[in-house]
Target: Sugar efflux transporter
Amino acid sequence: MQSTLATLTRLPNYPRLSLAVLLVGLSTSVAGPYIPLFASTQAHMAPLPLGIFMTLLAMSGVLISLLLGRWSDRLPNRKPMVLLAVGAAATGFLLLCVTRSYVPLLLIVCVFLGTGAASFPQLFALAKSQLQGADPQASEHGITTLRSVFSLAWVVGPGLGALLVGNERYNTLFLTTATLYAATALMVLWARTPPAVSHSSSAKPLPVSGPQIALWKIVTSFVLYGTSLSMGALALPLYVTHVLHGTTGQVGFLLGLCALLEIPIMLSFVFLPRRFSTHSLIVFAFALLALYFVMLWAAPGMVVLAIAQLLRAIVIAIAASLGMTYFQSLMPGRIGAATTLFANTTSIGSMLAGVVSGGFAQAFGYRSVFLVCGVFTLLAWGLLYSAGRRATRAQQG
Model:
């Protein structure tokens, strides 16, 4: 373990990149959960305008991230794209301090926060490009560890955000978030740009990236995964409080427990030898997620829900830490586009989750949402498993 840590700390700019990822994680987790509450209580948005507001925020983030991802792959240095994204986010949160009007708020979230949504994929694309000169295994371990740092930020970020908001002190929350984004920009500026390393001859994409294999199967499977995970996250608090008659404190316990368990599981991919391929592990994770939703559907109380969080933590640890390198391997030479595509599968899933989960919950109850999530997850598993089998046949043929 010590030798692995020593190797990681010797990677180019790794300590600075780790701090930048931590700051971005804190920025998103401190303010993100409270934007809907801000829109409802401070801007006095009714449910429909609030829904439009949040949908446009998500859509703008997806579209702008895709555009910046394509542009970044054409640049010799990815720093400008990262600085653009975090600078736009900082500006957007500063502007949220000075207006409560609906139309200006729509413009702020669509232009500035939408651009800021690209900070996560662009920062990880920068990290991947800066680690390319290192040993391939060390590079993959570096990205996995950075992803665990991002998860660590989400363990403490929402609680910190709650303290900052206090008695509706949203300006304090937004100013703090803008400061965190500004600090991220300083870390990125501080990181030295290593000499360009060509990998055109040594790049070994995963089998599923061959010309005869449809990439859409993998992308669709991750969108379905993101949809089911988001639907479950939306339904779980209401399921605990309305169906099982639990408390909001118990909801917070479940969410915090899952986030806490993710970190050692992610780090195990760094410090322990891996015997299975990335593709096989993600296929296993999708199957495990289906089992998780069955447990939620059948759960008689909090004990089963708490045990189920271990399954969810394993799934998220695998899909979040290995999914990014998986997409980057599928699209060699296009790190920015690949990282953005991976991040956007989750964003698109979140956009779909609200409508689907709300519709089923209203028609059939909150428990039914978990069955739908299980079906979506099985479809995701089938598509990903099929892509792997097709790749194997292509190799043998």
The CA atoms of residues 42 and 100 lie 7 Å apart. The chain has 15 helices and no strands.
